[in-house]
Structure prediction request, 187 residues.
Amino acid sequence: MISRIMSAGSNWPVLSVFCLFMAFAGMVAAPAAADVGPAARTVPSAELVGKGRMTYLGFKVFDAELYAPNGVYSASGPFALKLKYLRNFKGKTITESSVKEIKRQGGVSAAQLASWEKQMTAIFPNVAAGQAITGVRTANGSTLFYLDGRKLGTISDPAFTKKFFSIWLGNKTRNPQLRARLVGAGS
Prediction:
């Protein structure tokens, strides 16, 4: 086949440019591969929905990426939220911040919140800048947590899953601009 193309004479440069163009177009048109590690097994056909950076008082906190089947987010379907930390944090601080934000949303009893806090304390490790915690909402509504691809633990309560992910993806989030970028509604 190559000899046929080369024997085409003056068409060779045109054909080679066309082949390079087609190869490049294929790379550009391909969806972003999911970089959620083992979580990809739980989120079928995971593709990037959106991403954004969380800052607080000018400090970079984390970069967030939301993955969902075929790049379409549904709060009631499986998805993965990856937070790549840009600073060091104690696991205790991550738990305390999560509890504070869940409580701020309302609709959770003190006993339920205490149970979730205990479970998160057992799961969340200290993280260093550059490490990522990925939370996965499974099809059955439980939450799996991973640190750089290593499973940390599971919280099986669908009510926890809804409240936890609402910290970033819910209508009462403290950062609606980040939410818009994650769910694909922002610029």
User: Anything to note?
Assistant: Strands lie at 46-56, 59-69, 79-85, 132-137, 143-147, 150-155. Residues 11-29 form the longest helix (19 residues).
